[in-house]
Design brief:
Rossmann fold; 235 residues; single chain; alpha/beta; binds hypoxanthine
Length: 235
């Protein structure tokens, strides 16, 4: 089923590992600044996908768009039709944990959700979408090596950005570190396909430390650390 309804790339156009930021312009930024000989392999709906080389290793980068339905489509097609083995999401999140500050990294061991994506599997219990351990272990080792501030743990993949009621404190009480909008669906698709996924997030804003702000330059530095970690662990 290639090309798929949402990806125009040809068979073999994607590497075994795809880095997946939410924003197409960030995918372009990664391709232009970190990959050698990057070729544009998808531009359907402006969801830019590139394949190139990082330190001699063939790697792809493609945007996911925002939310579980969007990453659900792209990661499903990459895993099931394009032979992709690993997807590493490189995103931003809101911080729920009091010890996390803007620009810190979260390596998402698991992803809770307030959405319905998980329900499609008809399991008679509450499924826990979890990351691939081998990718997680390598990401943690690199975070330590780089000396970045990071935490490993649970996150929330929420379907609602502008929520009527702020439930961040309730999730924080359960040890949930932060909120984004994609990882639970990504982890489900990887697990269902027998493939690998990991989400690394930069804290872009905090629900606890609301006064914290960053300059574009400061944010860029953290994004670079996150992108380098993802590229280094790509298999
Ligand atoms: N909510 C959801 N996704 C996000 C947030 C947030 O507060 N910050 C960055 N991504």
């Amino acid at each position: 089923m290639i090309p798929t309804p949402h990806i125009e790339a040809k068979e073999g156009d994607f590497a075994k590992t795809v880095l997946m930021p939410g924003d197409p312009l960030r995918a372009q930024f990664i391709a232009e600044n970190f990959l050698e000989n990057a070729v544009l392999v998808n531009d359907v709906r402006g969801i830019k996908g590139y394949t190139g080389y990082y330190k001699g290793k063939r790697v792809s980068v493609m945007a996911s768009g925002m939310g579980q339905p969007s990453i659900g489509i792209y990661s499903y097609e990459l895993f099931n039709f394009y032979g992709v083995e690993s997807i590493i999401r490189v995103g931003t999140c809101g911080g729920y944990d009091k010890d996390l500050h803007v620009r810190d990294l979260i390596v998402a061991m698991a992803a809770c959700t307030d959405g319905k994506y998980v329900e499609q599997y008809g399991l008679n219990g509450t499924f826990s979408p979890i990351a691939d351990y081998s990718l997680l272990e390598k990401a943690v080792a690199l975070c330590r090596e780089k000396g970045v501030r990071f935490k490993v743990g649970n996150i929330l993949s929420s379907d609602i950005f502008y929520a009527e009621n702020d439930r961040s404190a309730d999730w924080a009480k359960m040890g949930v570190l932060g909120v984004e909008m994609e990882s639970a669906a990504l982890y489900c698709n990887a697990l269902r396909a027998g493939k690998k996924a990991l989400c690394i997030c930069t804290v872009s804003d905090s629900y606890v430390h609301k006064e914290e702000k960053t300059t574009a330059k400061e944010r860029e530095k953290t994004l670079i650390d996150m992108i380098e970690i993802a590229l280094e662990i790509a298999e």
